[in-house]
Design brief:
This protein is mainly alpha-helical. Helix content is 78%, strand content 0%. The longest helix has 32 residues. The chain is elongated, with a radius of gyration of 18 Å.
């Protein structure tokens, strides 16, 4: 796939992914405050921000390298897909109900 269609496809996926990121960001911070004990919230936020910063640095480097090696956006998009699937699997298997906050009834 060459020419304008290649850029249109990349732009489409960029807009969709960033829209999803915007929708998820509020929940990201709210869940952390809800699930983490008050004495460790600052530490956990710091770890989350470091992880986000690392991925923000690594993603363009890896995407650029894959784009250069393959000449197309399919490999970088597949790398994103793999990262998303790993994230979903981590969420499904690492999050346990016993860690959820208890609601006071009354």
């Amino acid at each position: 796939m060459r020419g304008p269609r290649r850029w249109t496809t990349a732009l489409f996926f960029a807009v969709i992914s960033l829209s999803g990121l915007g929708l998820a960001t509020a929940n990201y911070w709210a869940l952390t405050q809800t699930l983490v004990p008050a004495s460790t919230i600052g530490r956990v936020f710091g770890i989350q921000n470091a992880a986000c910063s690392f991925s923000g640095i690594a993603a363009p480097i890896i995407s650029g390298w894959l784009l250069e090696r393959t000449g197309g956006y399919e490999a970088p998009m597949m790398a994103v897909l793999v990262a998303l699937v790993v994230g979903v699997l981590c969420y499904l298997f690492l999050i346990r109900e016993e860690y959820a906050p208890k609601l006071d009834e009354g």
